[in-house]
Write a structure and sequence with these properties.
alpha+beta; three-stranded antiparallel beta sheet; two-stranded antiparallel ribbon; 4 helices; globular
Length: 203
Amino acid sequence: MAGAAIVTLLAFTGCAAAPAPADTSLPGADATPSAGPTVATSPEPPTVTVNEVQGEACAGLRSISNSAPADGVERILGEGLPGDAVYVSGYALPELRDTGATEYAAGDALVNEDGTPASYVVASGDTLYGISERFCVQFPMYLEWINSVRRNGAWDWTTGEDGPFEIFPGDTLNLDAHTITSVGDERGVVYSHQSNFYIPPQR
């Protein structure tokens, strides 16, 4: 009887008795009150990255590979010359294409008569990987190989060490495996390093 009187008194004063705790033994029971209905959000639409765009632009091009190149495909990095006893097949020369300036490859490109990339002038903010992506070079070290004669810091096949391949605004990077000995400079200086691996005939 006394309990009924207390409930009546709370009702008159505008207060309500505290709710009984939830029975957490029941499936789906929650001891904490819900913060309200949740609003389902739609997933963000997929964004097309620069790599994907360039991937489409580079589709169908031959990439550098360590598998034996097919007959008639020029090679690089083999030891000796074709026909020599010490000749090793090396890597197939990749096909390059200029996919256009990007944030990390904003410099100017020169092309050969057939429209293939010949050389590239480094711009401020460029990176080796950015330049590689712009010209469909899937293996950035390839750019070090074809610039190892007239620039410093490329892979040293004598010591087996890879030096820092630094690029500077205004540098000319060679992009053609047939002009390794005639195109390229580093800060305006042209070096004459001896290549100790097979390079294609030069022009």
